[in-house]
Amino acid sequence: MLRLSDRLEGLSSSLTLDMTARANALKKKGIEIVNFAAGEPDFPTPPFIRQATVRALEEGFTRYTPSTGIPELKEAIVDKFKRDNQISYTPSQIVVSCGAKHSLYNLLQVLCNKGDEVLFGSPYWVSYPELVRLAGGIPVMAPTEANHSFRLTRKEIERHWTPKTKVLILNSPANPTGSVYDKKELEEIADLALLRNLFVISDEIYEKLIFDGKKHYAIASFGKEIMERTATVNGVSKAYAMTGFRIGYCGAPLEIAEAVGKLQSHSTSNPTSLSQKAALAALTGDQSDVTQMAREFEKRRDRLYNGLKDLQGLKPIRPEGAFYIFCDVSSFGLSSSELANRFLDEARVATIPGEGFGMEGYLRFSFATSQEKIDEGLRNIAQWVKQFDRH
Ligand code: PMP
Ligand code: GLU
Fold it and tell me: What domains, with CATH codes, occur in the chain?
């Protein structure tokens, strides 16, 4: 039998994507389910972005582009980093890739040698450990506390640091917990990164989805020194409801950006030409759709959080960003996969088991679904909980 590469050994497919596919397959069969599993906005991509894509197609913008992205998009990204994050990159420090996931993949490939440790907080986004392993690195998960909204502290990083620690991944607002770091916490982490010579990958894909008037801080904006040790990752998937376009990007020190560019030139060649035009329209166009979507997400957050809080046995952690609620369900005495399966089969509600994020006893609920659907899902769970109690 053909033997697969050692690299692939033990690699699992993305649980979040698998669960979403399962929920969609049930829906296709005509089974009414409430999808709290989705990791993407349910809003349509704003019309002006779609129109820009169609225009690009009709104008025949259908050839290879420069590997790291078209110059006008890279300029727009430079402007975005300046305007929103107070970071001054030059266009040569920007690489546009096929989604933020691809930016992360590329960065880890150019940064990690075999055995290098890459540290991040747990619970974590499903893909971090696998992306690190694929790069030959060793994922090191530092546990975080529910009563500190699962934010990684300088102390916890220090506790898990070893001389082999090379990279620190930060994610604010975070998936799956919705936690948002404040300025002071990030400054403390930046200090430590400099002290310990760590390279920081800051995943800021949920930057625009932030609630309660909180502000997003980019760690690379804290000074020249930390900027020189940070790659800032972002993209258009979440903010502009453009997950299928597959455009993400990073701003990084020149040497790293050039290495990422070289790697990309031998893999995808370039991100899709039409998607780049779409991303250009998104970043340079009217931003009111983004604000409106964020406002609607905040209303849904309140509805789902308050609803879950009132259900017996469920203890949701209130998120301040992204579109997920991480919820303690340990009181049911089932594994998170068992509970997610029973919710799906018996309550017709799709969620993601916490074990995929390194946290047994929790489920992730996405509120990228309408307020009506949220109410329906809450009713279904309430009924299930009532029956469960009778067993
Ligand atoms: N980082 C985090 C934390 C995410 O949740 C996602 C969502 N898929 C990504 C990165 C990647 O986003 P995309 O590849 O769609 O740009
Ligand atoms: N990031 C989203 C999620 O966590 C989308 C799926 C994925 O890319 O893993 O559900």
Answer: 6-45+288-384 (3.90.1150.10), 47-284 (3.40.640.10)
Mean pLDDT estimate for the chain: 96
The token pair at 354 is 């916490």
Residue 127 CA, ligand 2 centroid: distance in Å? 8
Helix (H) or strand (E) holding 381: helix 371-390
Per-residue pLDDT band at 160 (split at 50, 70, 90): very high
pTM over 0.70? The answer is yes
Cα of 206 from ligand 1 centre, angstroms: 8
Q: How far is the CA of 1 from the centre of ligand 2 (A)?
A: 33
Angle subtended at Cα 311 by Cα 309 and Cα 316, rounded to the nearest 5 degrees: 35
* Residue 307 CA to ligand 1 centre (angstroms): 27
Give the burial string for 54-75 (b: 16+ CB within 10 Å, else e).
eebeeeeeeeebebbbbeebbb
Is pLDDT above 70 for 389? Answer: no
How many alpha carbons fall within 13 Å on the CB side of residue 326? 30
Q: Which helix (H) or strand (E) holds 233?
A: strand 230-235
pLDDT of 96-115, one tens digit each? 999 999 999 999 999 999 99
pLDDT at residue 21, rounded to an integer: 84
| Ligand 1 atom nearest residue 104's Cα | 10
The C-alpha atoms of residue 23 and residue 242 are separated, in whole angstroms, by: 20
Determine the pLDDT at residue 391: 56
Nearest residue by C-alpha to atom 5 in ligand 2: 39
Ligand 1 pocket, CB under 6 A: 39, 99-101, 125, 171, 175, 203, 205, 235, 237, 243, 248
